[in-house]
Design goal:
23% strand, 2 domains, 6 helices, Bifunctional non-homologous end joining protein LigD, Alpha-Beta Plaits, NHEJ_LigD, alpha+beta, DNA primase, PRIM domain, four-stranded antiparallel sheet, DNA ligase (ATP) activity, 290 residues
């Protein structure tokens, strides 16, 4: 039987459901704890969601159950939660437009956490107040290790990328994916098409370090190497947001890093952070991704 709990969040009325449901069975992490984490990390998370059309991965029966990606805002979304209608040419679902949600306040974030939207994904562009898409403001490199490579090798590639980006006047910011890899971000100035720029850099590093780096998506090319996924800059693609939970066995988080942590990484476990770890890091460092 569903249990419902009315709450008031920053002046908005919400009804939370099944707060005791365990969403991470291995550690007994419940929906209430998911909502609590997102509520507490909101001050540093929301600025990275503002203005960005939201895609979520929902796990209504926990991380061991079936999940689904959701781009369209559900029909029952409250009228105070911001939505924008964005053209999606070439959609795999044969849609001309999608009505995206945009999370810009705590009630909206809590609403989605209550839907068991464990993972929050956003594109590298924002929309205007009127919902018009703006040119990308962020460049991203998704570093994906092919076993037996791990995040340790990703850190080596990240340091190489940092140097190349700095030479081009771009300041790189690292974060874990919360899964097995990591991402590198930089503010983007629109000097050229971002996917083309990112692809050129990936190919450059592949040429410089062919035993470590691969720039092509073919799985057979990736064992023991780090795939620099430059295609995440395609406007149709999204990347997991900083401070988002991931649907792993434990509630790991896509966590912004200090460069000193990247430089010192020797074991994969060095850069695994759970929700509790991240809240402590935010308390100590603030938002490392500003």
């Amino acid at each position: 039987m569903s249990s419902k709990t009315p709450v008031r969040v920053d002046g908005r009325e919400l009804v939370l459901s099944n707060l005791g449901k365990v969403l991470y069975p291995e550690v007994g992490f419940t929906k209430a704890e998911v909502i609590d984490y997102y509520s507490r990390v909101a001050p540093v998370l929301i600025p990275h969601l503002e203005g960005r059309p939201l895609t979520v991965k929902r796990y209504p029966n926990g991380v061991d159950g079936k999940y689904f990606f959701e781009k369209n805002a559900p029909s029952h979304v409250p009228d105070w939660l911001r939505r924008v209608t964005v053209p999606v040419p070439g959609s795999s679902m044969n849609r001309d437009t999608i009505d995206f949600a945009v999370i810009e306040d705590l009630p909206s974030l809590v609403y989605y956490a209550n839907l068991a939207a464990l993972e929050l994904h956003v594109p590298q562009w924002r929309v205007t107040e009127d919902g018009e898409a703006i040119d990308p403001d962020t460049l991203v490199f998704d570093l994906d290790p092919g076993p037996p490579a791990t995040i340790v090798e990703c850190c080596q590639v990240a340091l190489m990328l940092r140097e190349v980006l700095a030479a081009d006047g771009l300041t790189a910011r690292p974060k874990t994916s919360g899964n097995k890899g990591m991402q590198l971000y930089a503010a983007w100035d629109g000097r050229q098409e971002p996917s083309a720029y990112a692809k050129d850099l990936a190919r450059l590093l592949e040429k410089e370090a062919p035993k470590l780096v691969v720039s092509v998506m073919a799985r057979k090319a990736r064992p023991g190497k780090v795939f620099i996924d430059w295609s995440q800059n395609n406007p149709a693609k999204t990347t997991v947001a900083p401070y988002s939970l991931r649907a792993r066995q434990r509630p790991t988080v896509s966590t912004p890093l200090l460069w000193s942590e990247v430089e010192a990484c020797e074991r994969p476990d060095d850069l695994v952070f759970t929700s509790a770890d991240v809240l402590a890091r935010v308390e100590e460092h603030g938002d490392l991704f500003t």
